[in-house]
Amino acid sequence: MAKQPRVLVGQVAAITGGARGIGKETARALVAEGMKVAIGDLDLDVAEATARELARGGSNVRAYRLDVTDRASVRAFIEATERDLGPIGVFDNNAGIMPVGAFLDESDDSTRRQIDINVYGVLNGVKEILPLFVERRRGHLINVASMAGKGGFPGVATYCGTKHFVVGLSESLRGELQYVDSPVEVSCVMPAIVQTELATGLKATRGVKPTTPEDVAEAIVDALKFPRFDVIVPKSAAVANGVLQLLPRRGREGLARALGADKALIEADQGARQGYEVRAAHSDPQLASGDQPAALSGGQD
Known about the structure:
- The chain is α/β, with parallel strands linked by helices.
- α1 (about 20-30) crosses α6 (about 215-225) and α4 (about 110-135) runs parallel beside α5 (about 155-180).
- Strands 3-2-1-4-5-6-7 form a seven-stranded parallel β-sheet, sandwiched between helices.
- The protein has one domain (about 10-235, about 240-280): Rossmann fold, CATH 3.40.50.720.
- It has helices at about 20-30, 45-55, 70-85, 110-135, 155-180, 215-225, 235-245, 250-260, 270-280, and strands spanning about 10-15, 35-40, 60-65, 90-95, 140-145, 185-190, 230-235.
- The model is unreliable at about 285-300 (pLDDT under 50).
- It contains nine helices and seven strands; from the N terminus they run βαβαβαβαβαβαβααα.
């Protein structure tokens, strides 16, 4: 007998960094499934515009200003969502940034911003939502990592480190929940390069199917209906990763060179990325109004 999908209609989902890119398309897909969705984003104006677009005249999508680097802001986001929409059943740690460039050229501000958003942003979400899920004995935590959390790619050294953290954290959380026999689910989403503003100017790699935000959103919906931990997008990337892990280091590095993966990020077109980088750098929550960013690096998914 085929396994029956979990019912999503009427459930509440909260998405960090949900105003653009993967977060926005995930919100769209969840609304299409009949869910109520809270969009949290540092850019409230864009979040509200996204909410209006997706709500279709209803009240099933709400927007909130959210700074994931501030645990109190995350707590306020969760409290407002539950007050307005009901108990959260799905929490999607989606917010993230990906500066591109050689590690030796990376500024301290860029390093700090990546760790604040990609690491502490995820931790703050987990620390605030997981106690509620465990107490209620229901809930599904989605942590958006990257295939960069499974390997190392020239041009995004710190980013890779932060995504390795998200993968390791998610694995450990799953183990601890199983240890205490909790029914709370954890999924770790690991996309290849996704065609969002974040990927502007990156070089294509041979043999890798282009991935869209819609592809990632579809995979997340599927993981909610049929819970699983590993959510690799596209599925071909999971096969490729499995093969790579069987090869010795020289073989892995040789294959990466053959596919152009060793140059895809470090040889990015910085001119093409400039608009994205400027907006992203201005998203630093530690900048006071009117301040200028110290460096053009970083951006939200």
